[in-house]
Amino acid sequence: MNKLIISIFFLALAVPVLAQEAKPTDYTMLAPIPQLATEGEKTNAVTYVTGLFKLAIGLAGALAVVMIIYAGIKYMSTDAFSGKEEAKGVIENALWGLGLAIAAWLILYTINPKLVEIKFDIAPQQIATTTTTLGGDLPGGGWGGGGGILPGYPLSPEQVAENTQIRDKLKNNKPYPVLVNNDPCATGGTIGCTNVVGLPDSALTSAKILANACKCTITITGGTEGGHSNHGPGRAAFDLSPIGALNTFLSKTNPQAAFPSNGAKVRIGTTVYTFETAGANGRATANHWHVEL
């Protein structure tokens, strides 16, 4: 009996709640049900399930009373010791079951009254999306993924200062520095200047690790400045000068990298190095390794 009462209570709680906004559908009752509606009245899912919940609590109490009365009669009408013990067990189980059902509801209500509310009209949560790039507000659209060439853009004094800080940190990498071939494109140029402001930390860290791994000084020849189709602020992509020591290191993974031709690729972990020759893609002004994470 104890299990029956608890099962009725918790089955009433086992109601799926869908996080979607939908208009309640009215339903006309065909027969009166306690706590819900009388015959012919209209109701909806929220009212219906709430009523079933209350009805289940009521049924649990009613069944407990019935079992207590039954066990009481049995206790009084039998002289057998075993019969009296069995009746006492039924009474105890009924009281425990009813107590657990009421206690479960009271505990939830005490913690938060909303825990015992049954609602289907849960409003969808609005999740704000933000985009953060290094160096402040830098252009990020109109390039890569079929978006064309990133146009040149000027840098603010703050962005130029941050670009200098990043260059200094790369240059001070130990034991092998990472250099940048040109000054930043402060006025929005796309040739003869190189930006590193806007490169993600993953790209900067990758360059440092590569320099130490190949035991050579490497030079960044292309960064986030305009004029590229697959570079830009926030994108982990940059170009490197193809010096002999770097080529030798990459050739340990792909022998073609020792004397690379256009399109030669080397994959190390999640980083892909692609060799591009001057003019091969219509934008390159010198041979370089295009690095993309």
Describe this structure in words.
With 293 residues, the chain is α+β, with helices and mostly antiparallel strands. The chain folds into two domains: 2-116, no CATH class; 157-292, no CATH class. 39% of the residues lie in helices and 11% in strands. It contains six helices and eight strands; from the N terminus they run αββαααβαββαβββ. The protein has a six-stranded mixed sheet with strand order 3-4-5-8-7-6. Strands 1-2 form a two-stranded antiparallel ribbon. The longest helix has 33 residues, at 45-77. This is Peptidase M23 domain-containing protein.
Gist of the model:
The chain is of the alpha+beta class. It has helices at 2-13, 45-77, 81-111, 157-171, 201-214, 244-251, and strands spanning 27-28, 42-43, 178-180, 218-222, 237-240, 265-268, 271-276, 288-292.
Query: Uncertain regions: pLDDT < 50 for 5+ in a row?
Result: 12-22, 129-138, 140-146
How much of the polypeptide forms β-strand, as a percent range? 5-15%
Structural class: alpha+beta
Q: How many β-strand stretches?
A: 8
Largest sheet: 6 strands, mixed
User: How far apart are the first and last residues' alpha carbons, in Å?
Assistant: 64 Å
Number of domains: 2
Protein name: Peptidase M23 domain-containing protein
Transmembrane segments: 52-73, 94-111
Signal peptide: 1-19
Keywords: Membrane, Signal, Transmembrane, Transmembrane helix
List the helices and strands and how they pair.
Layout: H1 2-13, E1 27-28, E2 42-43, H2 45-77, H3 81-111, H4 157-171, E3 178-180, H5 201-214, E4 218-222, E5 237-240, H6 244-251, E6 265-268, E7 271-276, E8 288-292
Parallel strand pairs: 3-4
Antiparallel strand pairs: 1-2, 4-5, 5-8, 6-7, 7-8
Helix pairs in contact: 1-2, 1-3, 2-3
Signal peptide: 1-19
Keywords: Membrane, Signal, Transmembrane, Transmembrane helix
Pfam family, one: T4SS_pilin
